[in-house]
Design brief:
The complex is a heterodimer of chains A (12) and B (252). In chain A, 0% of the residues lie in helices and 17% in strands. The radius of gyration of chain A is 8 Å and the shape is rod-shaped. Chain A starts with 9 loop residues before the first strand and ends with a strand. With 252 residues, chain B is of the alpha+beta class. Helix content of chain B is 16%, strand content 46%. Chain B is built from four helices and 19 strands. The radius of gyration of chain B is 20 Å and the shape is elongated. The N and C termini of chain B lie far apart (51 Å). The mean pLDDT of chain B is 96. Classes of the chains: A mainly beta (12), B alpha+beta (252). At the A-B interface, strand 1 of A face strand 10 of B.
């Protein structure tokens, strides 16, 4: 399964 | 007012080539320290971050922060109109809806100006934390490109496993399996620093996309840590970089 990159880095 | 001049268009062509397969459009954030860009691919699996410090440019002026929303296909078309050894100047007025690119031939006998319409893009910014990678590997960029190409023949997924013995790339699929291992070399072409061994699985097609940056740098840096995105970094001379981050795959 592929995780999204945005689940690792917080939105600012 | 923003104005930046590069002595050679070739690096700009290479930078855009390194971005355009992963991004269609992106916003350049220009400030008095230089140019930054950050964007995710459409599927939000990878993120690319570009930094060009002002010292990279022959001339650099940026009175106030300005964001330039660019269509990379259009920019590529304009760059095709220039020779690699042309000098290029990028100019934009404050609150402009267009950017101007001027090319000057090496002998200064030919100049060409192009205007590109700017786009209003929704910007999503992600905070990338400083990460202590358990494994940091430097290797020739061409070697990394070759490995990614060879892995792609075998499988969609590539396992990168790094230990003190070396860095190993593995792929297995219907056709069979491939394993490539690099050890540290005494001449320093390949350097491997390992605090703890790490093994993670990644989508190979993204790795292949990152290798579009190969012409920019002799060496590529790879950073691995458990359960964090892979870092693939191409330095741009001593004045900047393109960093790609790729989310690992997890077991189904």
């Amino acid at each position: 399964m592929q995780r999204g990159i945005d689940s690792f880095f917080k939105r600012v | 007012m923003f104005e930046a001049r590069l002595a050679s268009t070739l690096t700009l062509k290479r930078i855009v080539d390194a971005l355009r397969e992963i991004l269609n459009q992106s916003t350049l954030d220009c400030s008095d320290t230089g140019i930054q860009m950050q964007a995710m691919d459409n599927s939000h699996v990878s993120l690319v971050s570009l930094c060009l410090r002002k010292e990279y440019f022959e001339k650099y002026k940026c009175n106030r922060n300005i964001s330039l929303g660019l269509d990379l296909k259009s920019l590529t078309k304009v760059l095709k109109c220039a020779n690699g050894d042309d000098a290029v100047t990028i100019k934009a007025a404050d609150k402009a809806d267009k950017v101007e690119l001027s090319f000057e031939s090496a002998g200064k006998e030919r100049t060409a100006d192009y205007e590109l319409r700017l786009l209003n893009l929704d910007q999503e910014h992600l905070a990338i934390p400083e990460t202590e990678y358990n494994c940091v590997v430097h290797m020739p960029a061409t070697e990394f490109a070759r490995i990614c190409r060879d892995m792609a023949t075998f499988s969609e997924s590539v396992v990168i496993a790094c230990s003190k013995e070396g860095i190993k790339f593995s792929a297995s699929g219907e056709m069979g399996a491939a394993n490539i291992k690099l050890s540290e070399t005494t001449k320093g072409e390949v350097s491997i620093q390992v605090d703890e061994p790490v093994a993670l699985s990644f989508a190979g097609r993204y790795l292949s996309t990152f290798t579009r940056a190969t012409p920019l740098a002799e060496k590529v840096k790879i950073g691995l840590a458990p359960d964090v995105p892979l870092l693939v970094e191409y330095p741009i001379e001593d004045y900047g970089y393109i960093r790609y981050y790729l989310a690992p795959k997890v077991d189904d």
